[in-house]
Amino acid sequence: MKIFFTNVLAYFSQIHTVMESGGSRKLVVAPKYAAVWDDVAELWFLATQAFGSCISIYPELLEPVLTSEWLPKLVKEVAMTTDSKTDSEINDVYLTLLSQLSRGHPEVKEVILTNGGLQLARSSGCAELEGALSCG
Description:
The protein is mainly alpha-helical. The chain is 71% helix and 9% strand. The protein has a single domain, classed as Alpha Horseshoe (Leucine-rich Repeat Variant).
């Protein structure tokens, strides 16, 4: 199971990228997936939901989350594109995922906080994430 979720994280880390244009930044589907996004968008959405739910149930998933660069990168990328024209559904999915992850384990919460998670929660108006990061 750990190998499977390590591969899920690799997929998550590649699916979106930040594009800068005219001084603004936007979270977009990475060129590698752009041609097939319509086919994989639902898979991405379901995988993201499932992963967020699994983190509190399966503690062995913490190691891949904490040892990969995916989580800090995700927090930073979502933070730098919150006020942009990024598809709000994409940002909402990531904000929900970050909320779930921050509730899953104190070390994961600390990584999110260290990488600007609380500022992200406030700037995006995500009360769920702010609450998850502020408690305990």
